[in-house]
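Bumping with the actual sequence this time:
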Amino acid sequence: AAVAEVRRLAASHGIRVIAGIEITAVANDEDVHMLGYFYDAADPAFRSFLLTQRQARIARVEAIVARLAEL
């Protein structure tokens, strides 16, 4: 996450940055989009969670590409 860099650059222009994130989850076969604000982008547990989510998303995309290549 580039939150620290964005905050630094924004501050030099008198702008306050609020960290925000959207996390998509699935509940009862429905997508649920959760918005989070003021989160700690440096929190190790949260960063680990986001890394796991990113890796799962990449694996899904690679599986889709593989299936499309078989067509």
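The tokens above came from a reply further down the thread. Residues 50 and 65 are 23 Å apart (CA to CA).
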